[in-house]
Amino acid sequence: MDSSMNGEESGIKSEPKTEEKNNDEQGIEDDQKSDGKSEDANHEHPDAPEGDDSKATGEIFILDVDATELDLNYQRIGKIGTAELDRLQNLECLYLRWNLLKKIENLENLVTLRELELYGNQLTSIEGLDTLVNLEMLDLSFNRITEIKNLGNLTKLEKLFLSANKISKIENLSHLKNLKMLELGNNKIRVIENLEELTNLDSLFLGKNKINTINNLGTLKKIKLLSIQCNRLTKIEGLEELKDLEELYISENGIEEITSLDQNVKLKTLDLAMNHITAIKNVEHLVELEEFWINNNKITDWRCIDVLAANTKLTTIYLEGNPISKDPNYRRKIKLAIPWITQIDATMTK
What we know:
It holds the Pfam family LRR_9. The protein has three helices and 15 strands. It has helices at 28-31, 303-306, 330-337; strands at residues 4-6, 69-71, 93-95, 115-117, 137-139, 159-161, 181-183, 203-205, 225-227, 247-249, 269-271, 291-293, 316-318, 343-344, 347-348.
């Protein structure tokens, strides 16, 4: 018998749906699609089910008590009942995306859970997870959560997704020593703080917040990916200790100059698009650089492109939206300066 079930197979009662929609994965591309500057930013995802509680059923019927995976996405569930779920003694993955849940409850007996997805519900608080000590992945994105709390027992957690909530402060994470990925994009965070103990973190997403300074990252020496797009930064700083950094996404800010990357020699991807940069400089030492996004800035001097002759591994460059891109020989000049380039903007070179 197959050890996984979806909502239909488990006998879930649900309202008929007129349209089946796919849910895009969150991440860097998600960070690029909104300016996140509004104080009252709308966190409702376009795929979210309508919040009419009268249509929520919350009834789950289990066909396979030995299932290790249960998919209940898009089922209009308004409440998690205990009777059926308590029979799932081997359940490792529970997916409850895009339902109508307002509270995390009645999961305490699912102690074998490793993955729990509650993305796109109506949750306002993190609770009811104390006994889920084997959780390795928790996704609470696209809810209405205002505070990070009640995660103290989840010491095996490796991935935590809290994007698109209403969180204003980074806190209560210091005990998550095994955390490798933390997604806090699209919230109301103003200060990078209280991350010092997360020394195993390798991916940190802080895009679409209200941060004006990069700081307090010095102990996170394993970080390979940092996304801090669409904030209120005016300069690049605070990255000196991140010597293993391979991907830096810092587009849609107010940066005027490329500086302070001297120690980040392992960078492979650098995204500085949509800032106020007037010149390409201080990147010659980035000998591992493969992708460089500096489109939609204020670059006017073609001599800036000559600087990139030192970046011999560079394969992709985005320069569109700069004054130099209006030159009728734009692509040809780039190719002459960087003969090994394989992609200019969205088009492959010949």
